[in-house]
Amino acid sequence: MMEFSNGKNKLEEPQTGYKKAEEDLLRKALSTSYTERFHAMTRLMRLNMILKSAKIIHKKMD
Predict the structure, then answer these.
(1) Residue 12 CB coordination number (10 Å)
(2) Which of 8, 13, 40, 53 is deepest in the core (most CB within 10 A)?
(3) Domain of life, per the record (predicted)?
(4) Residue 44 is inside which H or E element, if any?
(5) Which residues of the chain carry a pLDDT beneath 50?
């Protein structure tokens, strides 16, 4: 993804470090077993159920 730099009309490529980190994360995710993926998904589903029923209470700060 290209981005504009400092409001000028100059486009910059994303930094190579971010691109490499993104590729490394993708490789790691693809190398996980189906069992590990299943356990990760069930953890996310449980967290979703917990957060759905959570009540957020707000107190005014003086």
Answers:
(1) 11
(2) 40
(3) Bacteria
(4) helix 34-52
(5) 1
Q: What length is written for the chain? A: 62
Using an 8 Å Cβ cutoff, are 11 and 2 in contact? yes
Whole-angstrom CA distances from 45 to 1, 3, 31, 40, 54 are 31, 35, 22, 9, 14
Q: How many CB atoms lie within 10 A of CB 62?
A: 3
pTM exceeds 0.70 for this model: no
No. of helices (H) and no. of strands (E), the chain: 2, 2
Query: 29 and 41 in contact (C-beta within 8 Å)?
Result: no
- Return the pLDDT at 13: 63
